[in-house]
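User: Here's a structure from my thesis project, written as structure tokens. My advisor, Dr. K., wants to see whether a designed sequence matches the one we expressed. Can you design one independently, without my sequence as a hint?
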């Protein structure tokens, strides 16, 4: 059996940081549009901001499929020996929860858009095929799911960042370096 790599592959690193940038940008735009444009905002401006949010967020659907395939075919580096077995288990569970949320969040966003009678655009290039007709009953279900998932995802991402920084500055181990240092595919 071959030893696990010391670093994530360059492809895994690019996918990680690209998805982080997309997620954080889409999250901030969604937060802004949902919390600061609710009342008294010009409808066209709010629509433009929400359209921007959707165009930025929908590529995550494609990237997460690539990332999961890449992760399945390229093992992640081992966690430090200094981590306890329960902490390693928690780290693995949280990573898979992040993957699940990165699938569920754009899917619920698409269903929110479609149920409200709007498209789900991708990078201003094309719209995802509409899978459901406008339906206020479905919208009443998927909207809060999308909002609560986004808050949960935001908290997980903040925790993920703090954990990486803890590993780097307090534990002084290789966890953060494995996602930032030179690697080969």
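Assistant: Designed independently from the structure alone:
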């Amino acid at each position: 059996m071959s030893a696990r790599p010391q670093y994530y592959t360059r492809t895994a690193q690019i996918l990680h940081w690209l998805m982080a940038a997309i997620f954080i940008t889409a999250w901030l735009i969604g937060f802004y549009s949902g919390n600061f444009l609710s009342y008294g905002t010009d409808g066209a401006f709010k629509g433009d901001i929400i359209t921007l949010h959707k165009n930025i967020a929908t590529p995550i659907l494609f990237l997460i499929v690539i990332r999961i395939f890449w992760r399945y075919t390229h093992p992640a580096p081992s966690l430090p020996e200094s981590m306890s077995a329960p902490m390693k288990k928690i780290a693995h569970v949280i990573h898979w929860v992040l993957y699940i949320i990165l699938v569920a969040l754009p899917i619920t966003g698409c269903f929110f858009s479609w149920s409200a009678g709007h498209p789900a655009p991708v990078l201003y290039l094309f719209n995802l095929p509409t899978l459901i007709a406008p339906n206020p009953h479905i919208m009443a279900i998927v909207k809060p799911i999308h909002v609560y998932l986004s808050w949960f995802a935001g908290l997980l991402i903040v925790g993920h960042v703090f954990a990486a920084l803890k590993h780097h500055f307090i534990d002084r181990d290789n966890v953060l370096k494995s996602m930032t240092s030179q690697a080969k595919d």
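When you compare it with your expressed construct, this may help: The chain has six helices and two strands.
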